[in-house]
């Protein structure tokens, strides 16, 4: 076949695929064979094809031979339908007139074909363009966003600096998380990375491009090289992919925006890359058949073996991303088995000429990179909209493809037949077991063994009276709980209590017999009868002989049933195990494919967020690529987010690589030194220059930031110095001149007390501390009247330390937290160094306001003298300041928590949120240094979580009103308060309650997607949901912490105690949601 013939054939194939896509979009029919038949019957006339499908949709038409023999072309699996809309001529479709429906369909198709004829651009490309333009518009709009939105860049470039050897993220430039997920998955295929980085544009690129493909694909390829080079060697934590997105956007012409499945973009992206490499391959190999590295890397072949109305056929087809249906299957192998067999295939293995039709697919050549596209979206014809399939689908980290290879066709058929036989036997056994486990003919069924046990218990019971209503006192009040004891029976009358079955015996004898036969309590199938309820029902009349025979039979039957049940369960387990091990022999484990990447979607069909899990072979771990955030992950996290069924998140694309081809992920090594290449050494010269220039720009940005901060700091110092000078001048003007000589030591810089030990006035904290100190001095003086001031100081310090130690050792509830009363209690709890405690205690006794009697003054002077004598090498002042700084943070955390809880209990959730958020963050930092440096983390987490849930409910309720002002208020609460806080809950993914709370909030808003609402509300919801569903744990910017009021130590201690007391009177916060 000549090149011209090949081009014409490919154009014809693409045109046919476009018609199929349009037909699928209009009718909602997904059966490819049915669509092909409709086109065949209508000779390519779309209007007639639609009429054929709409009139025959109640039954499946017979396929003719010519249609069925048509094979999928190379690009068949890479083109999926994208909707188109007629934006002008409006036809009323509210009635039942079929002619209106036909005219609307014809108008839509005519508009699509006209656009294609005029511009040469397909509907698919126009739809992609609309989404890309929306992305660019979103990117431009993001420049005007407020600081509370989570994706704004930090103004501090040091926070955007890449950590050493950490992968580089991609900035979401507006609904482009799909781009980040796909690009990162391909970039981490090192062979693909090398192909892109070392791609050299064709020599004729300098001239005018010959066609539209060259005009579009070659600049895009150059932009992709730049992006990959930045991912390799940039000093930034994340880079901006706007250049590549701009190229994509400029390739199409449209002014509308429309959300599409990310699979469309993945297909188109690989299609463009293939075209770009094809241009280069044709230039490099003039006169030879060019080899396209993209085709060799991502495309394989399979053999379609089929029978159509008794006639056998075999066709070889090419495939790229292999589509798999998810609905109705539990794991990847079940999906593959179903995809490899179509129709009824009994005739494939029989010698008889059968009229049945079907086909099997057998892989003849697998690509090095095997990609499965999981179809998790389906069109609901009843509702007229796409829906996402959230079903759970498991997939392995190592996939063996031997059973699907053509060379193993006969072995696989034998094994499939054996599995089919085992599953039939399994179905019979499961049905039998179900009869044992769900016994009965009514709507309620019970395990047969339990039914027999209940019958045995009934037969063994003794009645308390001859009628079940005789012992009920109808005069008693209905709410009475006190049971009246019957009066003792006289000697001459029969007791009104139980009589034996034979009419003889006393109630005592019946009671004794009942105690001898104690019924077996089964906690999972039987409930205990509360003691205040009537006795268990019992037979009226039964003889001992009847009871003995019945018990014997029931015991024997129950044993037989239990044995049968165990045997059935064991047989079912053996069959399951046999099926699992059917392909475990070595001959069927020769084609291993290792999971390389999982692309995940969270949300619903028309809104959501994308990210990727990619395996790092070098470090033997999974990494999570979520836009700008690249974090370490695990197989357990991947399973939770990717299998589906647990949340709205699930995998939509699986990328496996041939485990026997290590070059796919093998690093490059220097040919001379043998060392592994990394960073800029991996880049060709032109890209190395490009990255170095960008790194210099980033370094200059950091230098400018540092200079700006230095100027601000200098200005602050000058302002403080000026204020201090003014204050000193004012104090000199009003204070009398001191007549006491100045000691040389007084020229040293004064020792500043911590703010919670300030000594300016005998009020507040200082007064409380002063009273404690004076009590210690008085107690020391009472014990030793004639001691010197120094001895009294030592004794008083011991007395005070003993008191504080006793407070620290008390096992107190949260409402009496003595750490808030004194810093030394905090130090003792956290085992501060002895020198730190001693100096802090000495500072307490050196208070200038320590009293006015001579004894206290003399002790104060001795304490101050001792402070001045402490040498720098005796107490590490940096460590001393660090401990006091921790205590200051502890007090601030306590105030944040106190105010947050007070506001929460007043239901002022908007005001409470920031206090609780910062209380948790500060407290977490403290607890990282020691378990006694902060408060109960679970308690703070609970109220932080509850506050967010309350705000979410309030905002949702405002949205549901539909009133413009209330809707805007609700969305403002979500955007300004709730959404920025979600990364704080997601950052610690081991906290299950926080994860569940986030899911609850997202599910509440996602539930609106299926509801009818005004267009403006739908637009607001569509704009808001991607922000809510963004799973990034990167915290870019946040509200400033609220300013705290000043509390004295005593006031803080008492208010904190009152709040904690009110909490303990309610439910326990640790119980969670």
UniProtKB/TrEMBL annotation:
GO annotation (BP), single: cranial skeletal system development
Homology family: Belongs to the peptidase C19 family.
Keywords tagged on the record: Coiled coil, Cytoplasm, Hydrolase, Isopeptide bond, Nucleus, Phosphoprotein, Protease, Repeat, Thiol protease, Ubl conjugation, Ubl conjugation pathway
Catalysis: reaction(s): Thiol-dependent hydrolysis of ester, thioester, amide, peptide and isopeptide bonds formed by the C-terminal Gly of ubiquitin (a 76-residue protein attached to proteins as an intracellular targeting signal)
Enzyme Commission identifier(s): 3.4.19.12
Keyword ATP-binding tagged: no
Name of encoding gene: usp25
Name recorded for this polypeptide: Ubiquitin carboxyl-terminal hydrolase 25
Subcellular compartments: Cytoplasm; Nucleus
CDD domains attached to this UniProt entry: Peptidase_C19I, UBA_UBP25, USP25_C
Role summary: The muscle-specific isoform (USP25m) may have a role in the regulation of muscular differentiation and function.
A cellular component term, taken from the record's GO annotations: nucleus
Pfam family, one: UCH
Subunit-structure text: Homotetramer, inhibited form. Homodimer, active form. Interacts with ACTA1 (via its C-terminus); the interaction occurs for all isoforms but is strongest for isoform USP25m in muscle differentiating cells. Interacts (isoform USP25m only) with MYBPC1; the interaction prevents proteasomal degradation of MYBPC1. Interacts (isoform USP25m only) with FLNC (via filament repeats 17-18, 20-21 and 24). Interacts with GAPDH. Interacts with SUMO3; the interaction sumoylates efficiently USP25. Interacts with SUMO2; the interaction sumoylates efficiently USP25.
PROSITE patterns per record: UIM (PS50330), USP_1 (PS00972), USP_2 (PS00973), USP_3 (PS50235)
InterPro entries associated with the record: Papain-like_cys_pep_sf, Peptidase_C19, Peptidase_C19_UCH, UBA-like_sf, UBA_8, UIM_dom, USP, USP25/28_UIM
